[in-house]
Amino acid sequence: MRKRKLRTPEEKVRELQDKLHLSAKRDSARRFHQLYDKVASPWFLSTAWQRVARNKGAPGPDGVTIEMIRESGVETYLGELGAELRSHTYSAGAVRRVWIPKANGKMRPLGIPNVRDRIVQMATLLVLEPIFEADLPDSAYGFRPGRHAKQALDRIAHFLLRGWTQVVDADLASYFDTISHENLLKLIARRVVDRGILNLLTQWLKAPVLEESEAGNGRTVGRKCSQGTPQGGVISPLLANIYHACIPHLWERRGHARQLGGHVVSYADDFVIMLRPGSGRGQAALSALRRICARLSLELSEEKTRVADAMREPFAFLGFEIQKVLNPKSGKWWPRMVPLKKSEARLRERIREILNRRTGWRPPHEVVAEVNRVLRGWGGYFHYGNSQPAMRRANQFVKQRLRKWLMRRRQRRGPGYSQYPAEKLYGPIGLYRLPEAHWRHSRACPRGEGTPKAGCGKPARPV
């Protein structure tokens, strides 16, 4: 008799995820009862630990790091954590709040839970994500497995080419901080009625916030509130997607899609409504959107929300400037997508921070490696659409800054063109060159497809 091969925890989790996803997809009204035992199982906790450790991240308020858990023994730590979950004695810890700068000069709060809470959140995410992935609309692309920003841009290009050129460019003000806990838990309870799962979610939503005082010599405890989910929590993106899915749902349910037409394309809290050209249609759609947001206790950012005619003026979405323009050579209209000027400015500002007088003491290979990481990240995202001019400008700027930095380091004057030609910068020195070739869509993923297909290089099922 042949023995069955032992499987890894990852394979066992994937098998159960497939079953949950198929069951939720097959019956949109099904409610799931017994899920808490799966969160507390060694399979899910082990898989959750691997993903949390892979993501690294800073410690929470308790100061426990990933390395400290490795030194003390991962199996013992997960065993104790699983025992707490099974005996229902687990209690979520506080969240450490830090502030990170935004592109507009404001500050964004980032919540960092303890590592133990991130592990349990990841295990819960592994259970819940396959279920709610079956319910989320095809027009949503943010924080979802197998989906990315360029697919959302593909979908917008698809509608622009077909004449949907009036755009409601919408942005929610402080979306993560204004999600109603009561409404969110009611939405989740329509699918998940396991009290253990709902109790975990309630604990994470209402966890106290610890923040350094302005003097830096103590901590202040933030009050518990009835709204908001901390950015930085593992489970927060899924909760934000579940709540945001109400917008396209209410758009259809209240008859706006039938009366005004329109297609919603969203990425997290940034979304647009594509409409056919028509007098007053855009303002009517914006008024309807405001009523929907009021129903959800959300507020539109007035400074970022507007109605635009893509045939006459560009609109911004996901860091790109988008407009439908006429090609003078072919006489055809096409969607022009280029990186926003402020996106290029942020890249130049980051390069200046690395290549300045204060970093002259560092070894060149370390500095070039840091510059390359920035360029690869920026280029990997913005190499899309008609980004060739922006890529060329960025390459030219980086070459000039690096030449000046190398010359200053050697206490030499001059621009450094002869000492450091492009062949030397991109050769022995190892500078990364941003791609300047025209962006071409993959044949396996045709323009305008909303859902990944087989052969796209992205998994089509929840992971």
Folded structure, characterized:
With 463 residues, this protein is of the alpha+beta class. The chain has 18 helices and 11 strands. The strands form 3 sheets. Strands 2-1-4-5 form a 4-stranded mixed beta sheet. A hairpin with a 6-residue loop joins strand 4 and strand 5. Helix 1 crosses helix 3, helix 9 packs antiparallel against helix 10 and helix 15 runs parallel beside helix 17. It is globular and about 70 Å long.
What would a concise description of this structure say?
The protein has helices at 9-26, 36-39, 42-55, 66-72, 74-86, 115-133, 149-161, 175-178, 181-189, 195-205, 236-244, 246-253, 256-260, 281-295, 341-354, 364-382, 388-409, 422-426; strands at 95-101, 107-113, 166-171, 209-212, 219-222, 263-267, 270-275, 306-309, 315-317, 320-326, 333-339.
Blueprint (SSEs and pairs):
Layout: H1 9-26, H2 36-39, H3 42-55, H4 66-72, H5 74-86, E1 95-101, E2 107-113, H6 115-133, H7 149-161, E3 166-171, H8 175-178, H9 181-189, H10 195-205, E4 209-212, E5 219-222, H11 236-244, H12 246-253, H13 256-260, E6 263-267, E7 270-275, H14 281-295, E8 306-309, E9 315-317, E10 320-326, E11 333-339, H15 341-354, H16 364-382, H17 388-409, H18 422-426
Parallel strand pairs: 1-4
Antiparallel strand pairs: 1-2, 3-7, 3-8, 4-5, 6-7, 9-10, 10-11
